[in-house]
Amino acid sequence: MQLASTPFQELRLDRMSRAFGTVNALSDITLSIRKGEFIALLGPSGCGKSTALNCIAGLLATTGGGIYIDDKRIDRFRPEDRGFGMVFQNYALFPHMTVRRNVGFGLKMRGRPPAEIAEKVEAALALVRLQGQGDKLPGQLSGGQQQRVAIARAVVIEPPLVLMDEPLSNLDAKLRLEMRAEIRRIHNQMKATTIYVTHDQEEALSLADRIVVLRDGGIRQVGTPHELYQQPAHLDVAEFVGFRSRLSGRIVARDGDKARLSVGANELAGRLVADLEVGAAATLAVRPDDIGVTEGPGIPAMVDAMEYRGREYVGVAHTADGAELIFHADQPSEPGNPVTLAIDPARALVFSA
Amino acid sequence: MDMLAPTKLTSLRERLALRGIDGVTLLVLPSVIFTLAIFIYPFIYGLILSFQPINGTGALANYIAFFSDPFLYNTIWATLRLSLPATIVSVLFAIPLAMRVRLMKRQRLLTTILVLPITLGTVLIAEGMLNYLGPQGWLNRTLLLLGLIHAPLVLVHNYWGVFLSLIVTLFPFTFLLTLSFVTGIDPALERAAAIHGASSWQRFRHVMLPLLVPGLAIGFCLTFVQAFAVFPSAVLLGAPQGPTRVISIAAAQAAFEQYDFTMASAIAMIMGVVQLAIVVIVLVGRNLFYRGATSGGKG
């Protein structure tokens, strides 16, 4: 039974779970993916994102729940019967086959006529801009080119779903940016539904239509990059999207979604994410962009280190009671110097501790 | 001094170091001496000896004698008839078993069981098989009891006795070698093949087998060389005057029954040439296949 090229409207994970012995690597993942969507599974290592991908691919059996394509349940299908395409972290190109045979592999396994294979392989090579490299062996290509071959091999079968397992993590920084743009371009051209696993929030934000943040085997938040960036629902998620400073304190005043916290000797303001009453323990999370150096009243701190970022400096400072603040500044400052910092109350978020 | 001129290396030590020779290199001396004394010298001695026949005229008399006496030259075919099928069967059995064992978590127990025949030595195995496969052995008695046969199978003192004992002694070695080649193949390749639509047979045929060929060729050669030198089991389990009169028996008879060491040396040289010919054929054949890395990418 082949699913390749079958049009579908929705891929649905229904309480998908995977346990290793007594450890739940993945518990109750419920998610609906629409046709043509680019979904990023984002999370730190060990959060279950690769487990989730392998379960969807069929390389790992699920231990609970189901995977559906429209109304067809596929989680007991063997990987070769699901008809998906996959791009692996270490490319997993067949070293003994030329680029052309690597790309045409899926079509050959499906028993397509050679003329059709040749035609589709050329088109796929053109898509990933590798025309003229078809007769080389993978070992003769650079890392970026190998990854292009891997992408071509996955998309040439016109799969209903393309799975990508940290495809850029083996590339250097410059190539990573380049391939990121390529993956987006290829997605726009192919419109293949894609699930992309990454631990890099920047990659997820720039590529995905929707991001699924995973932590400890469960979904923490699902949203568009914009929603996630502006409205992280969880402290973990906030940390992942750049809220690098965390200050623990207690709520002393509340007015609608605005709250004031006492943090050590200071009183700071922020926007409430969790519904917290006065007196509750809370954590204020702020991005470096929203903590600046001020002349007026603010939080007294001591500079630990400064880093040059081109347009500005990013510094690390600590307050008298040990809290660490990561701030931006126009001017560098020597470690050990005192500095007064101010937090933008409109952009600081208050989470339950 | 002109800085652009090539630096002149004065000390011998520096010049040697540039060529990768230093104090540590001296550690190869024992093995070089050992190889010279135990392998190179006897080989050359035997080669020269084989051209100095005790009876006969001319340097080639021993070789002429060998190839004009069917009782002697037929031993080549008798040996090949045993060693080639035994090697092929060992390799063919080792592949599926290695493909399966590679997926197992507890490989050690199985590996231990398989290594035992190697450590026991051919003579002990031959003695055991003589009892086990003999007319009054367990195998025949079991088969008779079950009514599967009506007369005992003749499995000793003929071709099959030697063949089976060769398999038993060689298979573990071939299997372990094959297992190491199979596990050396990046498992991601098989997963990639599965995802892109290859059934388990297609995965084996198009991905695993082509990457295994170079290793199988080496495994074949090493197994074959051992099988070709078969001696104890050919004497104990075979018919040493008949179909299992292998070439090593001819050499032993020349040396220890006729006390003609020059003839024995000539037979040993012929034995070496036949082995070498088969190994060269297999290795040349191997070059027709892909022989590079068996992982699917960098990192």
Describe this entry's structure for a reader.
- The complex is a heterodimer of chains A (353) and B (299).
- With 353 residues, chain A is an alpha+beta fold.
- Chain A is 25% helix and 36% strand.
- Chain A folds into 2 domains: 10-237, P-loop containing nucleotide triphosphate hydrolases (Rossmann fold); 244-352, Nucleic acid-binding proteins (OB fold (Dihydrolipoamide Acetyltransferase, E2P)).
- Chain A has helices at residues 49-57, 79-82, 99-109, 114-127, 143-155, 173-190, 201-207, 225-230, 235-240, and strands at residues 10-20, 23-34, 38-42, 64-69, 72-73, 85-87, 161-165, 193-198, 210-215, 218-223, 245-255, 258-263, 266-272, 281-286, 291-293, 299-308, 313-319, 324-329, 338-343, 349-352.
- In chain A, α3 (99-109) packs across α4 (114-127).
- The longest helix of chain A has 18 residues, at 173-190.
- Chain B has a domain at 44-120 and 159-286: Orthogonal Bundle (MetI-like fold), CATH 1.10.3720.
- The radius of gyration of chain B is 25 Å and the shape is flat.
- In chain B, α4 (70-101) packs antiparallel against α10, α4 (70-101) crosses α12 and α12 runs antiparallel to α13 (261-286).
- Chain B has helices at 12-18, 29-50, 61-68, 70-101, 107-120, 122-133, 138-145, 159-183, 187-195, 200-228, 232-236, 247-256, 261-286.
- Classes of the chains: A alpha+beta (353), B mainly alpha (299).
- The interface between A and B is medium-sized, with 38 and 27 residues.
